[in-house]
Amino acid sequence: MTDPIIHLEDVWFSFNGTPALEGVSLDIYERDFLGIIGPNGGGKTTLLKLILGLLAPDRGMIRIMGEPPERHRTDIGYVPQYRTFDFGYPISVIEVVLMGRLGHIHRPFRKYSLEDRKIAEECLAMMDIADIADRQVDQLSGGQQQKVILARALATEPRVLLLDEPTNQVDVRTEVHFFEILRQLHEDMAIVLVTHDIGAVSIYVDRIACLNRRLFVHDSGEITEDVLAETYQCPVELIAHGVPHRVLKEHDREESP
Amino acid sequence: MIDILQFAFFQHALIAGVLISVACGIIGAYVVVKKIALISGGISHSAFGGIGLGYLFGFDPILGALVFSLASALAIGVASRKGGEHEDTLIATMWATGMALGILFVSLAPGYAPDLFTYLFGNILFIPASDLLLMLALDLLIIGVVYLFYNELLAVTFDEEFASIMNIPVQRISLLLLCLTALTVVMLIRAVGVILVIALLTLPAAIGRHHSTRLPRIMGIAILLGILFTFAGMWLSYLLSVPSGASIILISAACYAASTLYVRRKHHRTGSPIK
């Protein structure tokens, strides 16, 4: 097997003494489509921020292509959780998407080249939003805004796409369309999808991991209810497409460290 | 109106109004979209400490203001990023401490403090010709830096997290913006004084934001409005023999209120979102 693009080894992280992640190890390979599920507050977003070098682990090692995150994080397409910034900012769609190029411009003052603009326009076309390139982001629907954020991530020409609850605020039709786009993108890049929507995960992902401070990776291409139950290692109230689920109990290993 | 245009002091004031408005419009746009109006207020009030120091040791108070405002901009920039103290507590502390130091220094300075009122509330009609050159230099500096770092400033003010992932030096760009704000504040002190700076810095850009969704256009509108407000304020000041700084601010505030009402009514009619 080739070297992993992203490698985490025994990563620990805590917020002001409150443990958020404990002993997390994870490898993400070239053709992965990994779904990370888990309860809210289980550390999903924290894990992504550690991978991106936005947070530093208390212990353990994080590598992107064999080097510390800062070096190659520009090759990761990050789709943050919906509305983590001000959509009212006076900025157009194309300007937002162009920002995905900034990590690859090493000239002083980072002015965009024609090539950068071409790539940004291609990403808009790929997301089917070329017609709204000059609109202000606040004037768009939730689904369109989410596509803009995905287009910005694609403009980085990523090797891995990290998505944090990408379909949280969009309607079901947009969601299905969104996952179809991800399926196509998966032909060119690895995808890590953080979600609490088990229904969506079970259709699209190759591997699944459950995160609740500790990470349980399940190396299986096929996701059955048995596999899910085993992954969660706890009773899952309900698993159905598009229906919210609830985890009732923490992992057994949680209680006996 | 025409006859006073012949006076050199009035011509200087008009030129100063234009020069101030350029800096004010460009930096004010960032202050408004990045929501750092209170930080700007903290910077301008702490500048008063430097003004007092100038009186105490007999150097140009504006030089003291320059040093104090830059220092406070850097302090707030670094401290708020390091976490710990809440940012608004820090700003409030800086705000009051600067004023307290200024008053203390002025009281320790020998004799009577001339023009102290001017530094507090400004007087654009008494700007010496030598200051105009300094203002022009600051304008050119601000235009140059914003032009060169435009993409970085946009990325950092829009989405710090993504800018970090793109390996943009977020901390340095934020400090750069705060330093430019400090320079603009010092220019504005001449016109409207430390206490009123915050209004002239934010109101033209805030109105610009009502009427445009593009940053460069907001800057343009803010510059034009800044010129309009300072000219109108000066004219009113001349006409009614009232302080120019206060006139400028009151005209700005009235226009901002009118613009807000206009946008709200338009929103009611069309159902488009309020900016």
Quick summary:
The complex is a heterodimer of chains A (257) and B (275). With 257 residues, chain A is an alpha/beta fold. Chain A is built from 9 helices and 9 strands.
Topology of this structure?
The complex is a heterodimer of chains A (257) and B (275).
Chain A: E1 6-15, E2 18-28, E3 33-37, H1 44-51, E4 59-64, H2 69-72, E5 76-79, H3 93-98, H4 114-126, H5 142-154, E6 160-164, H6 172-185, E7 190-194, H7 198-204, E8 207-212, E9 214-218, H8 225-232, H9 252-255
Helix pairs in contact in A: 4-5
Chain B: H1 8-33, H2 37-57, H3 61-82, H4 87-108, H5 116-121, H6 129-148, H7 150-158, H8 160-165, H9 170-211, H10 215-240, H11 244-270
How is this structure best described in words?
The complex is a heterodimer of chains A (257) and B (275). Chain A has 257 residues and is of the alpha/beta class. In chain A, 30% of the residues lie in helices and 22% in strands. In chain A, strands 5-6-7-3-8-9 form a six-stranded mixed beta sheet, with helices on both faces. A three-stranded antiparallel beta sheet of chain A has the order 2-1-4. The longest helix of chain A has 14 residues, at 172-185. Chain B is built from eleven helices and no strands. In chain B, helix 2 (37-57) crosses helix 9 (170-211). The longest helix of chain B has 42 residues, at 170-211. The relative contact order of chain B is 0.17. Chain A binds chain B through residues 52-54, 70, 73-74, 76, 78, 80, 84-86, 88-92, 95-96, 98-100, 102-103, 109-112, 136, 138-139, 152, 156, and chain B through 33, 148-149, 151-152, 154-155, 157-159, 161-168, 209, 212-215, 218, 272-273, 275.
